[in-house]
Amino acid sequence: MDNVLRPIIVFGGAILLAFAVAWATDRLLRRIDARHPETPLWGLLRSGRVPLQAVIFVGLLNGFYEYADIARNHQPTVNLWLHIILIGAAAWLALRILAAVVETSTVRYSGVAHDPARARRVKTQLTLIQRLVTAVVVVIAASAILLQFPAMKTLGTSMLASAGVLGIVAGIAAQSTLGNLFAGLSIAFGDMVRIGDEVVVDGEMGTVDEITVSYLVLRTWDERRITMPVSYFTSKPFENWSRGGPQLTGTVFLQLDHSAPIAALRARTEELVRANDYWDGRSWSLVVTDSTPSTIEVRAAATARTSDDLWTLRCDLREQLLDWLQREHAYALPSITVTSAGDPPAASSNGHRNHQQPKHS
Known about the structure:
By secondary structure, the protein is α+β, with helices and mostly antiparallel strands. The chain has helices spanning about 1-35, 40-45, 50-70, 75-110, 115-145, 150-160, 165-175, 175-190, 230-235, 260-275, 305-330; strands spanning about 200, 205-210, 215-220, 225-230, 240, 250-255, 280-290, 295-305, 335, 360.
């Protein structure tokens, strides 16, 4: 009878106690979450209920398994696997708690921060810290599991004697990886680039979508994803349009004829800019920036709140100015004198040269 009751008591008691503790903890977290809705920490911690049950259940079995009087001949093997499962469950629980703390910190800081750029910087730092701590927890858990095997202990002792040589070899082999790791930490805490920043890299403009300790993902306007090593941003120049605030100034260049009515064009530019919903109301201008023997270069500039608004504003302004010039001042568009292939280069019989009429581009 003892052979039946002991396993039932040990296993049943461990299961009941694990479920009871996890249920009580979940109820407590739910009540705290209801009293403090301003922070999502307590609600997020409830996601650790399953790993908490696993830790309690396996921990109780590990401590009271010998009283179950089951498989005495295989008790060392059973204890080994109980230790392995306990280590894995503890690491699982630690990662759930870490994710809840990081998510809560990100949400709370985003809610109180008046500067969106600073909020993105904190989010980037917390994300990299979470990834780094996750890697450390996984490595420690894997090492602890391997050390449960006697053969691994002997191997570890022998490898420890040559740790200096192995460290040098590993450092040389992982030079690029370590460089990316330190570059990622430099980006996170040096505030060089943050998640959500608008950057231009090698002529490609996009939004920083993800930053890890080794690589960075850039989302372009056409929804492509460009993956780059983070070491690129610490060794080469790049443009960060979100640095110092999201406001930007954009330009529209027009090549016009020397006879273009600059005063009327400036007045029309002001009218179009002020009527555009994407203009942020800060400033605008229109100036002649260059001239050649055949054309002049006119630059219209206007400000916008974000890079997306600026792109739309520039496209609208360019299209509307060209349309106005074609309708009202077609002569102001640059003209190109062309001749057909059949026209003789010499003068005609009446002594006058033959030219085609200027054609407006």
